[in-house]
Sequence to fold (386 residues):
Amino acid sequence: MPKELRVGVIGCGFMGRTHSNAYRRLNNFFPVEHRAVLKAICDVNGDKAAQFAATWGYERIETDWKKLVAAPDIDLIDICVPNKYHHDIAIAAACNGKMVTSEKPLAMNVEEAEEMVKAVEDAGVANMVYYNYRRVPSITLAKQIVDEGRIGKPFHYRAVYLQDWTIAADVPQGGDALWRLEIGVAGSGVTGDLLAHSIDTALWLNGPIARVVAKTKTFITERKHAVTGKVEPVGIDDACMFLAEFANGSLGTFESSRYARGRKNFNAFELNGADGSVYFDVEEPEYLQFFEYHQNQSGKKTEPHLTGWRKIHTSNAEHPYMSHYWVPGTCIGYEHTFLNALADFVEGIEKGKPAQPDFRGALQTQKVCGAVLESARTGQWVETGL
Ligand code: SOE
Fold:
């Protein structure tokens, strides 16, 4: 008899959908011991929850998250609501002995994140934050290449994450669809939303960031509130750029904006080391580009006439996660990054090796975001404390 993993998901938005899809597909693709059971979906709007439950196959709905986190038929609470609610839900769930997973960023700020780490660790419950881009096979392959020592001494890390959906001045802020623009609900703008992904990937590939200096910009300073209709100041950062110094001595540049006309979800990075480089951009997610100057196994330099960037189609069974899917040469998509993350989480429970980033891991990203925002306020270099 497979063990059951009875899930209660809180939030019916974009992330509620990506996570629900992952639960539904888990046992089709990954040979884990647990069977995911979509027990309950929670949203304050009961009609919305009922519609969502019918679409995704949840057994029941709940409109009060406080009831769900205490429900005896739930093993895992999965937080897919706006950032403002992560802290209270996660702590209540952990206090009730539930496993907890959450969408990124972990919290509104470092203080909240630290309290959440303490709660899950005191309760001894499994936990993870969905930094899903780590589970793009090409990015996981980049990690493998770095860990194999093929990049050599790192010099530069370069990340950009660009979108363009807030350029129009008449886009409101707030409400179900546009809470990412409301400071009191999101905590920050592109820093916590987009750069948090870039930072998580950077920490994973290139180690701790020691210090940062940042500049943020809010291009449109007032927007109508989607619910109240009142024109209110905009408190989020529309764009953020920062310089970073990694603990390993390499230098980083990070750039993010929601005003990069034409860019819908351009999440890219490059790492340059003495022996090689890797480059990825999510508009071509099935490729990882790798430049090898010096082969680490043979110690030989690549022959000059063969030197060049390799564009690796990450679709062989030997590539990360791909043995679970189709035949070589075929691709997987955005939704599978959540499925891969869930599979890692469940395997982590089964093997007693927690999937990363857990809450403590995600606290590192939160600290870098906090330092970036502080630096943007003060104009000074800020130590991250990592
Ligand atoms: C923002 O537009 C957003 O939906 C992020 O919140 C997600 O984390 C990102 O992956 C796609 O863009």
User: Anything to note?
Assistant: The two ends are 44 Å apart (CA to CA). The first strand starts at residue 3 and ends at 10.
